[in-house]
């Protein structure tokens, strides 16, 4: 079953205006915001956001303040509407991820067919030999792969169908890439923790992020710790079985001998698992240990205290994927690399190192 992706007023309005444009309802120029507001009965902000979306899709061309937007329907728009996009998720929980819902909604608004591989990368053990048959069961004109290892992405790179890696480890793989650059924010985080007296800093990252060697973001943390005079080793980026039970066992092992003062946690699902397990042991953040979440999801804003996190604008990542797919739809696939810079957001789960 495809995920349910609720759409905002501006998204619904953009889809409606797109339909009217293709019907020829507006001629060569789009009416202004005030006229559309009166005609459609929506607020100015929704109209403006919808028009900006249609500009990003190439249907409208702005001419400057006080002048109407010109309508430009691509000659290959019929072909674009038939684009088949196959998405391979990292794990089953991705279907409820805010980013995944936004991406699904944006691609549907473009009139493209969106399909999902029957199994996720995690269910397939990140094994290229198992990924292959699963991928080939879904026909597509373009593929978006979320959170894949370098080995899996190298398998995709050898196939003729255009592919874009998102939030994975493409590194030097010759495919289109997008995602979030967290290294700068992580270095800022390490400096902040160091200033608060933290010396025992541990990263809990998935296997694909730590093996066969640490990814660039993980290595940036280790390098900054060394620069600040904190020796690093296996303790700071421990190996563990990538399951909830494996994560809990890792935590028990860490806190049994040399309790960490700060945990940098790789995903919202892992953050919740860590927080709840530590609470069961009578440990609270930030009194007993500081907790930081990477790959933040807005659902965590409901937690008290709200987590300190490294976050980015997921809308920008969706836009990068959309632009690449639009090039594929027009017969011009690229191997462009476009990333979004993350930022450190202070919440209530970081405090002075426990004494």
Note down, in words, how this protein is organized:
- With 355 residues, the chain is of the alpha/beta class.
- It has three domains: 9-71, Winged helix-like DNA-binding domain superfamily/Winged helix DNA-binding domain (Arc Repressor Mutant, subunit A), CATH 1.10.10; 77-179 and 313-340, Rossmann fold (3-Layer(aba) Sandwich); 183-312, Response regulator (Rossmann fold), CATH 3.40.50.2300.
- 40% of the residues lie in helices and 15% in strands.
- It has helices spanning 9-23, 33-40, 44-56, 77-81, 98-109, 128-136, 150-157, 183-195, 207-210, 216-227, 244-257, 268-280, 314-329, and strands at 29-30, 60-61, 69-71, 84-88, 113-116, 142-146, 163-166, 176-181, 201-204, 262-265, 290-293, 308-311, 337-341, 343-345.
- The strands form three sheets. Strands 5-4-6-7-8-13 form a six-stranded parallel sheet, with helices on both faces. The protein has a five-stranded mixed sheet with strand order 9-10-11-12-14, with helices on both faces.
- Helix 1 packs across helix 3 (44-56).
- It is globular and about 70 Å long.
- The model has no long low-confidence stretch (mean pLDDT 90).
């Amino acid at each position: 079953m495809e995920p349910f992706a609720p759409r905002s007023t501006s998204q619904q309005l953009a889809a409606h205006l797109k339909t009217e444009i293709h019907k020829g309802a507006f001629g060569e120029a789009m009416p202004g915001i005030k006229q559309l507001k009166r005609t459609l009965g929506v607020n100015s902000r929704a109209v403006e956001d919808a028009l900006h979306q249609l500009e990003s899709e190439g249907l409208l061309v702005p001419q400057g303040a006080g002048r109407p937007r010109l309508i430009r329907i691509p000659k290959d728009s019929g072909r674009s509407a038939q684009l088949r996009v196959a998405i391979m998720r990292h794990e089953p929980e991705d279907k409820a991820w805010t980013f995944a819902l936004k991406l699904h909604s944006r691609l549907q608004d473009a009139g493209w067919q969106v399909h999902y591989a029957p199994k996720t990368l995690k269910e397939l053990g990140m094994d290229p030999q198992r990924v292959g048959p699963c991928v080939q069961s879904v026909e597509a004109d373009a593929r978006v792969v979320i959170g894949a290892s370098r080995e899996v992405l190298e398998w995709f790179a050898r196939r003729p169908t255009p592919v874009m890696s998102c939030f994975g480890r493409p590194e030097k793989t010759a495919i289109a890439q997008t995602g979030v650059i967290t290294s700068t924010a992580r270095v800022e985080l390490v400096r902040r923790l160091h200033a608060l007296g933290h010396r025992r800093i541990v990263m809990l990252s998935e296997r694909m992020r730590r093996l066969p060697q640490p990814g660039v973001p993980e290595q940036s943390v280790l390098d900054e710790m060394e620069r600040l005079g904190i020796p690093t080793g296996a303790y700071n980026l421990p190996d563990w079985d990538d399951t909830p039970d494996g994560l809990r066992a890792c935590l028990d092992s860490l806190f049994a001998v040399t309790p960490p003062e700060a945990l940098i946690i790789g995903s919202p699902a892992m953050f919740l698992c860590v927080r709840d397990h530590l609470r069961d042991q009578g440990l609270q953040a930030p009194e007993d240990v500081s907790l930081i979440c990477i790959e933040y999801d807005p659902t965590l804003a409901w937690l008290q205290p709200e987590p300190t996190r490294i976050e980015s604008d997921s809308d920008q990542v969706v836009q990068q994927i959309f632009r690449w797919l639009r090039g594929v739809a027009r017969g011009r696939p690229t191997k462009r690399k476009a990333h979004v810079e993350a930022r450190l957001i202070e919440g209530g789960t970081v405090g002075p190192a426990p004494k």
